[in-house]
Amino acid sequence: MIAAANIKYLQEQIARNDDAFAYKELFVSFYNPLLRFAITLVKSREQAEEVVSDVFINIWEKRKRIDSISNLKVYLFIAVRNTSLNYLSRQNKNLTDSVNEADMEFRSIYFDPEQLMVTAEMVARIKNAIEALPPKCKLIFKLVKEEELKYRDVAEILGISQKTVESQLAIAIKKIGSSINFDISKAIAAPHGLPK
Amino acid sequence: MSNNTIWQLIAKKLAGEATPQELAELETLLRDNPDMHYPIQTVADLWHHATPDTENAHSAFAAHAERMKQLGTTLDIPAEAVPAHSKRKYLVLSLVLLLLCLLAYQYRSIIFTGTDEKLAAERMLASATDKSEISTRYGSRTKLLLPDSTQVWLNSGSKLTYDKTYGNGTREVSLSGEAYFDVVKNPAHPFIIHTGSINIKVLGTAFNVKSFPNEKNTETSLIRGSIEVTFKNRPSEKIILKPNEKLVTANEELVKDSTQQKLLAEKTALLPSKSQGRQEPLVLVSHLTYEPHDSTIVETSWMDNKLIFRSETFDELAIKMERWYGISIRFTDEDIKPRRLTGVFENESLQQALKALQLITPFTYKMNKSEVIISSK
Question: Where do the domains of chain B lie?
Answer without folding.
Answer: 2-48, 56-106, 112-287, 305-375
